[in-house]
Amino acid sequence: NGRFVGNLEVWHRASPPPVPVTMSSLEIAELTGKRHDNIMRDIDRMLKKLEIDVLKFEDVYKDAKGEDRPCFNLPYRECQILVSGYDVTLRATCIRPPSSTHCHRDP
């Protein structure tokens, strides 16, 4: 079963999540120290090169002003593909087992 850490529901390896584990573009930006708009651009380019419909992973979040802003929620595989294009240190920061505290269930 999952437990909450902040607003994220964390799953342990002994109890796999019933839905795909994802990482948001906001979380990726925070972990890598890159700007969110650059992460969004990288994800868009990656998905197009892989011939994956970007709409499949698009989402929105509320910014500090309460306005809707675009983001992506990437499954574990696509997250690994994205960060493997960054440097080794960034790869080590982001590529974690699906039970990582940064992984959460899709709503």
Précis, in short:
Helices cover 35% and strands 23% of the residues. With 107 residues, it is of the alpha+beta class. It has a 4-stranded antiparallel sheet with strand order 4-5-3-6.
Features:
107 residues; disordered C terminus; alpha+beta; 4 helices; four-stranded antiparallel sheet; single chain
Describe this structure in words.
This protein is of the alpha+beta class and 107 residues long. Helix content is 35%, strand content 23%. The protein has a four-stranded antiparallel sheet. A hairpin with a 2-residue loop joins strand 1 (3-5) and strand 2. The chain is globular.
**Mean pLDDT rating:** 78
Assign a percent range to the helix content: 25-40%
**Which stretches are low in confidence, meaning pLDDT under 50 for 5 or more residues running?**
103-107
**What percent of residues are in strands?**
15-25%
Q: Give a count of the beta strands, DSSP E runs of length 2 or more.
A: 6
Overall geometric form = globular
